[in-house]
Amino acid sequence: MKAIAVDIDGTITNQNREICVNAINALRKAEVNGYPIILVTGNVLCAAKMVSVMVGTSGGIVSENGGYIQTRKKNLVLGDIKKSILAYNHLKSEHNIKKTEFSEIRLSEIAIVRNIDEETVKESVKNFDVEVYDTKFAIHLTDPEVNKGKSLEIVAKDMGINVDEIMAVGDSENDLEFLEVAGFKVAVANADKELKENSDYVTQKPYGDGTAEASQ
Amino acid sequence: MKAIAVDIDGTITNQNREICVNAINALRKAEVNGYPIILVTGNVLCAAKMVSVMVGTSGGIVSENGGYIQTRKKNLVLGDIKKSILAYNHLKSEHNIKKTEFSEIRLSEIAIVRNIDEETVKESVKNFDVEVYDTKFAIHLTDPEVNKGKSLEIVAKDMGINVDEIMAVGDSENDLEFLEVAGFKVAVANADKELKENSDYVTQKPYGDGTAEASQ
Predict the structure, then answer these.
(1) B182, B168 in Cβ contact below 8 A?
(2) Rounded Cα–Cα distance for residues A64 and B216 (Å)
(3) What pLDDT, in 10s, does the model give residues B112-150?
(4) Is pTM, for the whole model, over 0.80?
(5) What is the dihedral of CA B135, B139, B142, B146, to 10 degrees?
(6) Catalytic residues of B
(7) Cβ proximity of B60 and B70 under 8 Å
(8) A-chain residues within 8 Å CB-CB of B18?
(9) How close does chain A come to B50, measured CA to CA in Å?
(10) Which residue of B has its CA nearest to A25?
(11) Residues A188, A195: contact at Cβ < 8 Å?
């Protein structure tokens, strides 16, 4: 194993998005021991970068569910937001929805506030070319051509390593693809059933404590 | 005392901008004990908001050195970025400078990478209507009509309190104005000499440990 890729919300934070100090300490220790941390999130890059700076991670960032990445060498917009806009406009014509904060700086996808259920969104946009993710923190309308797994491969390449040398830790359905490509797949105890079923290891502890447990 | 206002970089982080877990714990405890935390920073709002969410602060945010605020009731752009653009363009014609990351989402001022010294910047833009701040993390060209102190007053008002009921904690010259308006003024041990001289209390410990000390 040469690096650790972790989701943010629900994986190093609790259900209120507050970061776990045990996770911070464990990830810093991993960095010191030569295992760079890669953040893999549905957040916008600016927010994810602040977490990277505050925690002290050095592997790079996959933001917007894979649509916008910052590798050690470059920033890349990979998702086509036009697909999300078409689906969003249709959804908005049928339901009373609202974009999440800082949507104006989201470059590759649209995230909406979770006052509508995932199935209703999926039914409404079924004829549009978008993937619908419910991260339990927001519902995302994402270009199906991108996902956290494909983007992690690019970030890993710019680190000079392969994805199968990465341990991946996640909690939600939008983490499936990046756990899939990773060499060792960890689901925290609070993770979705499907993610747990596709993991090599399910932590005993939930949320950030689970990530701390896996990173030791 | 009814609330605590804290700067981010150098005040709850170390010199590498890594957040101090003791500061996180102390600020969370203060929130639980009924003292809302207000973040007062030169960072862009999106980054400051992520810190607010991750730490779990509820008082509001002063970002961009006062130029852009998020109170409990509203977001407000207070600084006029046109002033900064004029000064920046002149500075750029004289020196090889670079804006900081995410400058495209900075709405009220311009921050430049600190590969030029503050005095050189001040000399170059002396005929322009901007305030020059060296935060030790970046050099800011800010509308002189705004500062962290005036903006903290607006945030406090929307919390239903007065600024003189706030304890303020900072480390840098751009923190002078918000310490000035606060009821109790704290400089962390690593703070600028001028800030220390204008404080009611200088912490024994530096950086985030100093903020933890003051918040207890």
Answers:
(1) yes
(2) 38
(3) 999 999 999 999 999 999 999 999 999 999 999 999 999
(4) yes
(5) 0
(6) 7
(7) yes
(8) 28, 53-56
(9) 6
(10) B21
(11) no
